[in-house]
Design a protein that fits this description.
mainly alpha; 0% strand; single chain; 2 domains
């Protein structure tokens, strides 16, 4: 089966000039530019960043906190670690990160609707 796929690929392209990786990269960049695939990639990247910033990092901070039994030591450094809350990185600077991504996603959605 792999040979049949390779024959189809080499039939379209000169096998000495292109490799399978080059063909895949070329097809990816054509999809990104011509078929407006960058909008889908933008949405996935934004969702991943939000998931990481609002779910994964706070959960990790909560899991790795020392137990409350450590309070008997009354060390100020330990108290700061225990009671310190996570502030999401993307909300620093007034949430400009979310405003920028929101503008890009909204503009791409409006342009997709107007093109149809």
């Amino acid at each position: 089966m792999l040979q049949a796929v390779y024959k189809k690929i080499t039939k379209c392209y000169d096998a000495t000039k292109y490799t399978v990786i080059n063909i895949c990269m070329k097809n990816f960049f054509v999809w990104m530019q011509k078929d407006e695939g960058w909008k889908a990639v933008l949405a996935v990247v934004y969702a991943f960043i939000c998931l990481f910033d609002f779910v994964v990092v706070p959960a990790w901070i909560g899991i790795t906190r020392p137990p409350l039994e450590v309070l008997s030591a009354l060390d100020t450094e330990t108290l700061n670690i225990i009671y310190n809350q996570h502030s999401p990185f993307t909300l620093q600077g007034g949430g400009l990160f979310h405003l920028a991504f929101g503008a890009l996603l909204t503009g791409s959605a409006i342009s997709r609707i107007s093109n149809k």
